[in-house]
Amino acid sequence: MSNAFIEMIKNRRTIYNLGDQLPVSHDHITKLIKEAVKHSPSSFNSQTSRVVILFGEQHKKLWNLTKETLRAIVPAQAFAATEQKIDSFAAGAGSILFFEDMNVVKGLQEQFPLYADNFPIWSEQASGIAQFAVWTALAQENVGASLQHYNPLIDNHVQKEWGTPDNWVLRAQMVFGSINAPAGDKDFMDDEARFKIFK
């Protein structure tokens, strides 16, 4: 099967071995992220996704904060592995913090009470779509990335350090950088177990 979009999706992989030498400029990365998020669909065109982009020392600060937060809760004998993992994220070039604006979600719940229970679910879906769009767009520029979830452990630190509003709820952290080593092989479950087709 030949389809440019499918090939882009296949090209998007989780890259753990990241470096800080980007093949494109910070400005280019920023524009790419903005466009990918802006054009990602959301229910009722609610546009609930919010993003903070961190480069260089600001990016390293995020992972230092994360490491110190984890140091307080991870047993000392197990912390070396945790530290190694966090340091591998800090070795990248930048991080993208994905948030959802809960004021928008609450406003929609009030405006459309019939769907009130669904808006938080749809918000999560919108966030996932935005993350996937950004990740795929980065891959097209030969920028590696991995998606992490240290929220809610780091939420207060992030809000204090970068001044995000109370109504922005952190949903994911995407580390990005140069690809120092490619992703490994990926296994797939049998199509017969995953898909049902009726004609």
UniProtKB/TrEMBL annotation:
Gene Ontology annotations for the cellular component aspect, listed alphabetically: cytoplasm
Pfam families: Nitroreductase (PF00881)
Compartment(s) of residence: Cytoplasm
Residues in Nitroreductase domain copies: 9-177
Keywords: Cytoplasm, Oxidoreductase
InterPro entries linked: Frm2/Hbn1 (IPR033877), Nitroreductase (IPR029479), Nitroreductase-like (IPR000415)
Record carries keyword Oxidoreductase: yes
GO molecular function: oxidoreductase activity
CDD domains cross-referenced by the UniProt entry: Frm2-like
Keyword Cytoplasm in annotation: yes
Main location per the UniProt record: cytoplasm
GO biological process: one example: cellular response to oxidative stress
Protein's UniProt name: Nitroreductase
Native organism: Providencia stuartii
